[in-house]
Amino acid sequence: MKTFSNKRRLDALATPSGHLPSFLCELAGLALPFLRLCVGVFALLILGVAASFAAVLTAAYTTGADVPVTASSYIATGNTVTFTLNYTPTTGTQLTVVKNTGMSFISGTFDNLTQGQTVAMTYNGVTYDFVANYYGGTGNDLVLAWKATRIFAWGFNEYGQLGNNSTTNASVPMPVTA
């Protein structure tokens, strides 16, 4: 059975005793004795609606200067990104995916793109490998760095977000390994 991490959405609608209001079950066409079934159906409805809001960012590059998103803050969690390369990049090229003009880091990561993940893009039959760096650019931008370029990260690492296979904080730049 699949567990859902979005339980807080249901908790916001629940009564102090932890049950959903009876009118929600009646709206679903279910009698109160089937409250447990109703909660499950309602959870699927809530999560289905939430999933429909997930966005796909399409990042297309015709030059190395293209920037698909510029924003003062950005939430990547729950979204996906696709890449299209429409030119021949030179050695050392860095492609900015999200230019974060604010002070904070990008919130989370794209569902299909982790820190340090290799991104292979093809143009005219030649494949070019880049590495995702959520701390690139000015330190809080999502940049695809030329794979031969070594990526470094530092800061808090409670969840392993620095990509160095540990959860130890780093006060100096450390190579990203994953």
Topology:
Blueprint: H1 7-11, H2 22-27, H3 35-51, E1 56-61, E2 69-71, E3 80-85, E4 94-100, E5 118-123, E6 126-136, E7 141-146, E8 152-155, E9 170-175
Task: Provide a descriptive summary of the structure in words.
The chain has 178 residues and is an alpha/beta fold. The protein has three helices and nine strands. A hairpin with a 4-residue loop joins strand 6 and strand 7. The longest helix is centred in the first third of the chain and has 17 residues, at 35-51.
Q: Quick recap of the structure?
A:
The chain is built from 3 helices and 9 strands. The protein is α/β, with parallel strands linked by helices and 178 residues long.
